[in-house]
Every structure is written in structure tokens, then in C-alpha cells.
Amino acid sequence: MAGQGPAAGLADRVEGHLVWLRGLYRHFHRYPELSMNEVGTADRIEQELVALGLSPLRVAGTGVVAVIQNGEGPVVLARADTDALPVTEDTGLEYASAVPGVMHACGHDAHAAALLGAVRVLAEHREAWSGTYIAVFQPGEETAAGARAMVADGLVDLVPRPDVALSQHVMATAAGTIGTVSGPVLSAGDSLRITVHGRGAHGSMPHTSVDPVVLASSIVLRLQTIVAREIEPGQFAVVTVGAITAGAKANIIPDRAELLLNIRAYDPAVRGRVLASIERIVRGECAASGAPAEPEFQYYDQYPLTSNDPAVTETVTRVFEEYFGSESVYQATPVTASEDFSFIPLAFGVPYTYWTVGSVEPERYRDALARGAVGQEIPANHSPQFAPQEDPTLLTATRAQVVAALAYLAKDARAGKPA
Ligand code: ZN
Ligand code: ZN
């Protein structure tokens, strides 16, 4: 396919590197590594960048950053995540994971390969653009640790300040299509460990106890009223109690219970309300039970809201439509999953956009969609059967990174337009 628009010349060149791209993708897929432990992956990325004549930096151990400085012009930062998941692969692919219990089940292998592909095309064809391109290969997305770790390790001072930041994610939608949306695209996510204290006793003498099992049970039920009764209908919020642990034996009343909660929201005010309501309800139930000690709240795996900048999203959507054709670019609906990408643009204080790239054989996807069976029939991200169709997913993801960057960096994109 030869697309249109200022980026067409370079994005078309990606096809010539398809064998190399597939090789990279299959290598990453075959040797997945868990969050913040992406040692071999980072080494391979570094090796490829060096082969392209670049001088990559290591940030936060397994993070890799390459900067292509190519004269005057805007600065674009593009980010790919690189970590895999503790999932046992069940795809039957010839390049399936060679690491027991670990799998690239979220497509980060494709993200890493696509960003390397974009770097290659931009590094080899500097005559077509000017400005600065920063490629960030970020570890630890799945635990919300990586972006924060790169920022903590000085990312902001190591590279020029970008004007705009870009990222993408492979999803179980039709391969060859791209979804963009202005505003919230991924929810803020919080995990919360709550410990409530009771008074332990023999199971036959409940009157001498403060039973944390009963206490935790009423907390679980009462928490259901937050979304149902406190959040305005139409506003998005999720409160899930994913785990509840107390006691070990039938005839012992334990002295504590632990609850693990997951909370999602798009609106920071809604998120604040939900968190405050959780703490209020837990304290209230503890008081009602006569708990001998205050409950403890420990927040972890906290993901920021991903909210796409309208102007950047409009620019990127327009070049996607020019290059891929408007029939291939759709308006994405916000999803309730979360991402830590936005920590990076937030650390620089710059606008960003985050788009999705389809990965399912289009006929199969449309057929399942027509029957309302996508959720049942198409393995989604994190499934042991998640298997992006290599062609054209890799090509589309790589071209998307090139096209989006060139919306800012291409010489002819800026002609007659204020930079
Ligand atoms: Zn994931
Ligand atoms: Zn992911």
C-alpha cells in the first residue's frame, strides 16, 4: 500500500524492512521478560540502535532511549513498552514463548519492534525531515513501575524537552485499522490493600471477639453502594474487590482481614470521590464493629489517567487518515484499562496522544462483530491465546509511528504552516 500525505515517502519505506521487523518481533515474542526484568530485550534493542549508528542511553536499568538530532525543528518523543506478562502461552505459534510461564500477551513485543522500525526509517532518511526524534523503550508497563522509574532516573534531564509525546497499543480489533480519540482514552487505575483489625477468639466464643470476617463482609457489600448510589449516573467508575483474605481454620476467629481493591475512573474528581468514599465506609464499618484499631490503607500499582490532547490528536488523526485512508481510522471508545505512559509526558509537562492499532484478521473480526461475539471469540490482550496477526499489524504499527512523528517533523508538513 502506498499512502498519501507528507509522510507517505518514508512510511512506504517500512515495507522494505518487513523481514527485519518480523525477525525482531518474533525474537521479542519468543523471549518474553517480566516487568522491570527486561534485560535481554533491552540488550537487543540497544544492539539494534547501535547498528543504526545511534548512541542509546540506559535509563532505570532496562529502559532504553535513543535520540536522533537532525537540525532545527520540533522535538517528538515516541514511547513503546517492552515487558511481558506471567501468562503461559497457548497460541501454537511457531515463534511462541520459549520461557515457561511468561508471555508477550499484551503486544508489547509489537510495540518495541514498531518503534525500532520507525527509528530505522527516520535514521536512514534524515533528508526527509528535521527536528529531534526521541525513542523511549519503556520497561515495566504492566506493573505501572516503568515510566515512573525512568522519570525517577532522570529521563527529563537526559533528553531534550519534547513538544509532543506519542504512544500506541495493539488491540484485538481489525488489523490494518487505527483508533484515535480525544480526551480520556484509558482510565486512571488504583489498587488498594485494606487491612481491618478485629479481636481474635475461639470459634465457639464469638462474644469475646470482634470478628473481622463479618466486618470485611459488610465492607464488601457497602462498597457496592459507591458506584450505585454516590457516583452520578453516566459517570464512569469501577470498584472491584478482587481478593479478601482472613483466617485459616473453622474454629478460630482471626484478628484481621485484608481486602484488595481495584478502582478505575476517567474523571479525577470521580476518582477522588471514590477513594474518599472507600476510606469513609471502611472507617465507618470498623467503628460500627468496635474494631480495636484503625484500618490501614496501602495504595499500589497506581496508573495515571491517559487523556489525549485534542490538538495533538486532531493532527495525528488527520495524517493517519491521509496516509491509511479514512476508512482505516476510526474513533476509538475509551477503555477501562490503564497505562503508565502519561507519566512521561506529564513529567515533561507536554501534550500527548495514544492510539490503538488493530491486530485481528479483519474478516474474522468483522464476522465476530456482526454476531456480537467479539468478546467470546477473539482472544484479547492478556489472554494466553492473544496472537496478533503479524501482517499487516507490524506494518501498520510501524507506519503509524512514522506517520505520527512526521506530522511534526516532515519538512513538507511544515511548509506554509507555523511550526
Ligand atoms: Zn497489558
Ligand atoms: Zn499493554
Explain what you see:
- The chain has 2 domains: 8-184 and 305-418, Aminopeptidase; 188-303, 2-Layer Sandwich (Alpha-Beta Plaits), CATH 3.30.70.
- With 419 residues, it is of the alpha/beta class.
- An 8-stranded mixed sheet has the order 1-2-4-3-5-16-6-15, sandwiched between helices.
- The chain has 14 helices and 16 strands.
- Strand 1 and strand 2 form a beta hairpin.
- The two termini are 29 Å apart.
- It is elongated, with a radius of gyration of 24 Å.
- It binds zinc ion (2 copies).
Q: Total strand count, please?
A: 16
- The helix-and-strand class reads alpha/beta
Helix content, binned percent:
25-40%
Query: What is the number of domains?
Result: 2
- Give the CATH topology of the largest domain: Aminopeptidase
How large a portion of the residues is in β-strands, by DSSP E? 15-25%
The CATH superfamily label of the largest domain reads Zn peptidases
Low-confidence stretches: 415-419
Between the first and last Cα atoms, what is the distance in angstroms?
Answer: 29 Å
Largest sheet: 8 strands, mixed
The CATH class of the largest domain turns out to be Alpha Beta
